[in-house]
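re the bet — no i am not wrong, look at it urself. input seq straight from the record:
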Amino acid sequence: MKKLLNYIFGLSSGVLFLSSIFLSIILVASFFYLAINHETLIIKETSQDLTFLNLTLLGKFFIFSGIIPNFLFLIFFFRAVKDLIRMIMNFIGWIMGIIFSNKNFDMLEKVIETNKPVIKKTVGKLDIKKSEYEIFWIVPIVALAIGFLPMPFGYYIISRLIVSGCALYFAVKFYKQQDNFKPWIFGFLVVLYNPIIPMPLGSKELWMIVNIPTIYYFFINRRS
């Protein structure tokens, strides 16, 4: 039994999938062929009712043998899910590698150093209070405001992560307050700014137009 299971698990995904389909077709076709042309082999003579209790041993064999193709397909399904998860994790790792690469951080440091007066002026205009709650509206506003400057690609991925995370915080907060409107708006911002599946808005100019009402909406909900 152990050797049989090792052999089955050693088969490729393509062979498992095709085998499960082929066996299913053979078993179903054989069952209905015998049920139509040789009823006595499948159904007891005393009854024509096609129920499990009224099946012969051969009929019950066909029912239980359906476990085999289902088992093969189940192995194929779990392999496919595992491969999909591996692909997603590799993609996330690739994105994180771009964001946190030394080259990207060097570019970010250089741009921040070049635009330091502008960044200080932008931050200085905000009434920053030392509280955990206010971080969730101050940080996305600052991140989006800095995004108007010519920043490297990695910065915009980080800003997307910041804005979507803070929007998720407000979406949950207003949902708990049983607000019927604001959770949907912040939920839309979570989807719009998510860094995993970026929304294809195109040019930076279009994103700047979108960022302005986003900044405004975070600002007006800062004390909610």
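see?? The chain has a mean pLDDT of 76. told u. also The chain has two domains: 2-96, 102-220. so pay up
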